[in-house]
Amino acid sequence: MLFTSYPLRNLTLKNRIVMSPMCMYACADESGRVNDWHRIHYPSRAVGQVGLIIVEATAVTAQGRISANDLGIWSDEHVAGLRELTALVHGQGTHIGIQIAHAGRKATVDGPIVAPSAIAFDEKSRTPEAMTLEQIEETIAAFGAAARRAKEAGFDVVEIHAAHGYLINEFLSPLTNKRDDAYGGDRARNFRFLSEVVRAVQAEWDGPLFVRISASDYHPEGMTPSDYVEYARLLKEQGVDLIDVSSGALVPVPPKVYPGYQVPFSEQLRREAGIATGAVGLITEAEQAEEILQSGRADLIFLGRALLRDPYWPRTAAKRLGVQLEPPKSYTRAW
Ligand code: FNR
């Protein structure tokens, strides 16, 4: 199944291998613009025959950057560079998406940082300002504008980053959302920010839409995979195509990690919410990826570090599974 195509609205991915979004912190200045590193790094994985590449967390506002070297999509000036990336990857027969993100209280840029509530991540981190309703509105609009720019830049997929303790995740979890207004206080109100971000994105974007979540906070008072089943159902009703199922990083509690440690969360959401999912996290072997798909535990396999180490991972996997993989045409005789 790993090398079977996957239909996604208006497009068909050539296989189930997805490059997971990974920040490169590679912008030399603070412009947020695409540079040579991105122009080499992403197309390399397209040559390696990945089915879908998701460009790293890309900031929807300058204030929402994880670091000053993040990629940006907060200005129309970012579109030209991003369009170069999509053209390069499309030229090698691979689809390309972008993860749009706001770092919330985990932003490390100069100036004030914002979050649903004024609670710092840990004692070493800065305390964010609790967002006003006006700031909330502006940030939702920034996600919408980012989706418009993603379309102008030629992306095939938009992924909303609602995981890893960044802004949207901070609204979703009761550990970080202590508001008592329309945007916090109970399950429905904690979900409202994400729901409105989805709507703002959909006003500009009619292509495939993914949402990455942290299915567990690994904390007794935090969110659990079962809580996320409910949210995944709501996201499905809103027209989200796939949940990319990660976990953790909301609060400083490191999870126990082992091969496929997040796959059970993907399996539960897929089964109980009836939505397509992507599995991610210490998936490194072809047989492991194949098992996840064959057992109906996910629809797509997201690979992070395995694809950093081996841009040709799909070729390596195809050999192991005995699948004939179409080589890039210039490599035909060497593949
Ligand atoms: C990441 N990860 C990540 N996740 C995300 O949603 N947006 C991001 O921008 C990043 N950035 C990032 C950078 C680097 C260098 C790494 C290694 C990881 C998490 C990543 O997408 C993936 O979920 C994890 O790495 C687990 O998968 P692997 O690496 O075990 O396959």
How would you describe the overall organization of this protein?
- This protein is α/β, with parallel strands linked by helices and 335 residues long.
- The chain has a single domain, classed as Aldolase class I (TIM Barrel, Alpha-Beta Barrel), CATH 3.20.20.70.
- Helices cover 34% and strands 16% of the residues.
- The protein contains ten helices and twelve strands.
- The strands form three sheets. Strands 3-4-5-8-9-10-11-12 form an eight-stranded parallel beta barrel, surrounded by seven helices. Strands 1-2 form a two-stranded antiparallel ribbon. A two-stranded parallel ribbon has the order 6-7.
- Helix 3 runs parallel beside helix 5, helix 5 runs parallel beside helix 6 and helix 6 crosses helix 7.
- The chain binds ligand FNR.
Task: Give a topology summary.
Elements: E1 6-8, E2 11-13, E3 17-19, H1 36-47, E4 52-59, H2 79-91, E5 95-101, E6 114-115, E7 129-130, H3 133-152, E8 157-162, H4 167-172, H5 187-202, E9 209-214, H6 225-238, E10 242-246, H7 263-273, E11 276-279, H8 286-294, E12 300-303, H9 305-309, H10 313-321
Parallel strand pairs: 3-4, 3-12, 4-5, 5-8, 6-7, 8-9, 9-10, 10-11, 11-12
Antiparallel strand pairs: 1-2
Bound molecules: ligand FNR.
Residues 20-23, 56-57, 99, 161, 163-164, 212, 246, 280-283, 303-306 line the site of ligand FNR.
